[in-house]
Every structure is written in structure tokens, then in C-alpha cells.
Design goal:
Helices cover about 35% and strands about 10% of the residues. Strands 1-2 form a two-stranded antiparallel ribbon. Helix 2 packs across helix 3. It starts with 16 loop residues before the first helix and ends in a 9-residue tail after the last helix. The longest helix has 15 residues. The chain has 3 helices and 2 strands. It is α+β, with helices and mostly antiparallel strands.
Length: about 100
Amino acid sequence: MIKTLQPSKDMFIQFTEDELLELNIHQGDKFTVKNQEDGFFLEKMVGIELDLAEFPEDVKDIIIIKSIEEQIPVDEVITNLLKQYLAETSLPTNTDV
């Protein structure tokens, strides 16, 4: 499928309703953009759900302390910790999370 990037402050691609249904795209979905020789490739990002109730108390304490110290939301702390872990284990990661 060939789409044209629409000019704005941020770049965006506009899909028709039929394309959204065909590609299973929903409002708020996020994508990584990979530059290819003849254009760009969009890869849909998949979210994960974590139950904080299952986290050990010391881990919850660390997350809360980092959130307060860095003045960022808890979900951002968790995202940063996951990125750090993936970088240290040499697993492929996306920095656009």
C-alpha cells in the first residue's frame, strides 16, 4: 500500500476507514517507522499489561522513588527501566516507545 506523508508539525499518514479495518488499526495505535530504500515501513507496536500488585514491594518502592525524583509518571519509569534492561541484555529494542 502506498501512502503520502501529510505535512504538519508532526508527520502523519491518513488512512481511509476501509484501510483501517483491513489493517486492524485503531485510534491511538503507535508505530515504528523504518527507513527503506524505496520508502518507509510502518510496524505496529504492541503494548503489554503489567499488574503492579504482583511486583515485589522493594521494586514498587524503587519505581515510586524514581518517579518522584525524576518527576515523571510511574508508567514512564517502568518504560525506561524496561528499555535499560533490554539494552543491557543486547535484545533488539525500539527507542520510539
